[in-house]
Amino acid sequence: MLAAARRWDFAGMCITWRWGPPKKIFIYGHAPRWLANLPTNGLPVLRSTRLFKTADLGIEPLAAEPDGNHILSLQNWTIRASTPERAIIEALDELPENESFHNIDTIFEGLTTLRPRRITELLTDCTKVQVKRLFFVFADRHDHPWLKHIDRSNIDLGSGDRSFIKGGKLHPTYRITIPEEYLPGKPESAGGP
Q1: What pLDDT does 47 receive?
Q2: What's the Cα-to-Cα distance from 53 to each of 58, 115, 118, 119, 171, rounded to whole Å?
Q3: pLDDT tens digits, 12-26
Q4: 157: closest CA among 133, 138, 122, 183?
Q5: 160 in a domain, yes or no?
Q6: Rounded to whole angstroms, what are the CA distances from 131 to 30, 41, 78?
Q7: Is residue 193 domain-resident?
Q8: What pLDDT, in 10s, does the model give residues 109-144?
Q9: Are 51 and 69 in contact (CB under 8 A)?
Q10: Structural domains of the chain, count
């Protein structure tokens, strides 16, 4: 699971808790009425489930924690969470308004064990060209061993240039504007933006 976020799915509703100020609770799916009465220290933010054609692709039941934490089986509900492969794609969809390039870059650096088949499946099913292009910008930057096993043949990266952020530079391969320090051949910044 990503260090920056934790995602849970209750009966078709996926909830994400992000740590750090301000605390936001990202809700994917249809929110039940009782959710408004749930005591939290965060701000609920509704998210569309249209990032993928198949809404539950990459969402799996959480395994019981080694310490025997029973919160995972409340009231006989199965709590489901985004796999790391889906969670990073969801996080990319938050750029640049709710997530920083530096944070995504740091997360990508630690994604050494992603499953290439699952990534291929999710990127093929993903509905947003800019998210798919951004995935490969960061994946190429970190060049983890799983990258060479992704089957790109059915992943539609669209055509034409995409203006993604103001003042950004056009990535030579993926034709999307990004901060200059994330272009190929640029040294990694120590402190981030």
Answers
A1: 74
A2: 12, 20, 15, 14, 27
A3: 455 554 445 557 776
A4: 133
A5: yes
A6: 23, 30, 29
A7: no
A8: 999 999 999 999 999 999 999 999 999 999 999 999
A9: no
A10: 1
Q: In what order do the strands lie in the sheet with 13-18?
A: 43-47, 24-28, 13-18, 5-10, 79-82, 59-61
Q: Count CB neighbours of 189 within 10 A.
A: 13
Do the beta carbons of residue 77 and residue 10 sit within 8 Å? yes
Decide if 189 is inside a domain. Answer: no
Give the residue numbers spanning the domain of 13: 5-182
Tokens 């025997």 found at: 68
Within-domain flag for 187: no
Those residues with Cβ within 8 angstroms of residue 179's Cβ, 6 or more apart along the chain or in another chain: 101, 165, 168, 169, 193
Q: The whole model's pTM is what? A: 0.76
Task: Give yes or no for a cis peptide into 172 (omega within 30° of 0).
Answer: no
For 65-78, write each residue's pLDDT tens digit.
Answer: 666 555 555 555 66
Polymer length of the chain: 193
